[in-house]
Amino acid sequence: MLNDSHSAKRKLERLAVQVPVTLVIGSEAAGRKATSVDLTPEGMRLRSDATLFPDQCVRILLPAYPDHYLRARVTWVGNRASPEASQAGFEFLNP
Q1: Model-level pTM?
Q2: Other CB atoms closer than 10 Å to residue 33's CB: what's the count?
Q3: Containing domain of residue 24, as a range?
Q4: Is residue 49 within 8 Å of residue 78, measured between CB atoms?
């Protein structure tokens, strides 16, 4: 399992995967570039320069599925002064 400050709360082990994704915040027409850090069937961690807030709803577009957005909720945002700066955790909302 990856070792970070959020691991203790996690039910499933995360798989380290770096994939470019598109992050769409709110009603934005254009997405922002982001990169996955790790994922589980229930969520993922992304690295992005986007300004995010806990409980914010977003859509994530994976390059392998360009016609299908994953709906997700921001569960945590990395502190600027920590190794998790520019990272955020997401819980998938799709059924």
Answers
A1: 0.83
A2: 12
A3: 14-82
A4: no
